[in-house]
Amino acid sequence: MTLIRQTSPHTLKASSTQAIMLNVLMALIPGLLVSVYFFGWGVLINLVWASIVAVSCEALVIKLRKRPIRFFLQDYTAVVTAVLLALAIPPSAPWWLTLIGTSFAIIIGKHLYGGMGQNIFNPAMLGYVLLLISFPLEMSAWLPALGVREGQGVLDFMTSIQLFAGSVPVNTLDAMTMATPLDILRENNSLTLEELWASNPVFSSWAGKGWQWVNLAYLLGGSWLLYKRVFTWHAPAGMLLTMAIMATLFYGGEGSNGHGSPLFHWLSGATMLGAFFIITDPVTSAASNKGRFIFGTGIGILTYIIRTWGGYPDGVAFAVLLMNMAAPTIDYYTQPRTYGHKKPNRGLAKLD
């Protein structure tokens, strides 16, 4: 009798790492295009340069470890790390800044722990925090968005090349850049929110000019990843919901001590990039759905605290790294119940 060969009913077709990373890169395209439109060609220049550095560092380390280079480069994890880091740093960043951050993310943040799947911290955020702490002047030099500065064209592209090459004097760079909406709001202690919005051209109806559309583009890309089931909704929902609750509780009205509305915090800084592309990293986040929600909740709380009372205008990167350290503990207390047992088995069974 001929037996019918059939897979088990509980077996699912697993997507390869390469396919997942390609989906992530495709989902980042709307945010990339909007960022280039509002903040200039420097965004694209940094992205290309960071990708070259990341792939080169990845190949070098893999060769030193005597592993097959082509096999490991085809998973595109290094490219995703480079793109996320490049999108997080200012478009006016010089070439050496991107070089330091990207190489640190790949060599130290990823391969020091054993490579893909072994790293404790998110590599892109580790590289970003290194740059933010070591080079605060360069990391705060954000160009004003389109609508605040003059339109883009050939001159804007040439300026981006000069910024990338580091050939623009510091005093000229200071005149070209300005603080982000998050930084302006955090430093405000005299104007009401209505006066601040009316007196500063960087603000728009919801958040900051350019920033709100960039965040909405990342929201669009993240929603597509949710539709493709690349990750679950738990971590992004935990982060965004908690940020909204915190912003509502500490809103402070329209006075000078106002800290911004929930919509402002959702559409400012790296909120949507972090919620859908950073904290959903399956390696450095929690494993269970309940754990992911707790993980995202912690990031939302820490991000708002750092933004409002900390020393940095945007706390997404710091919040992610802090919760990366807490992820093993979250996993320990949120393990799902093993089939046939009333409670999860968190340790070795005691021998009689």
From TrEMBL:
InterPro entries: NqrB/RnfD, RnfD_bac. The modification FMN phosphoryl threonine is found at residue 180. Its EC number is 7.-.-.-. The chain crosses the membrane at residues 20-41, 47-64, 71-89, 95-113, 125-145, 210-227, 234-251, 263-280, 292-310, 316-334. Belongs to the NqrB/RnfD family. NCBIfam families: PRK00816.1, rnfD. This is Ion-translocating oxidoreductase complex subunit D. It comes from Zooshikella harenae. The gene is rsxD.
